[in-house]
Amino acid sequence: MIATQEKTLAAQVRADFPILDQEVNGHPLIYLDNAATSQKPRAVVQALQAYYQHYNANVHRGAHTLSTRATDAYEGARDKVAAFIHAAHRDEIVFTRNATEAINLVAYAWGQTQLQAGDEIILSVMEHHSNLVPWQMVAQRTGAVLKFVGLTQTQEFDLDQFQSLISDKTKLVAVVHASNTLGCINPVQEIGAIAHRYGAKVLIDACQSVPHLPIDVQALDCDWLVASGHKMCGPTGIGFLYGKQDLLRAMPPFLGGGEMIADVYLDHSTYADLPHKFEAGTPAIAEAIALGAAVDYLSGLGMERIHAYEAELTAYLFQQLRQIPQLQLYGPLPNAQGEGRAALAAFTAGEVHAHDLSMLLDQAGVAIRSGHHCTQPLHRELQVSATARASLYFYNTHADIDRFIQALKETIDFFSGLMG
Question: Has keyword NAD (predicted)?
Answer without folding.
Answer: no
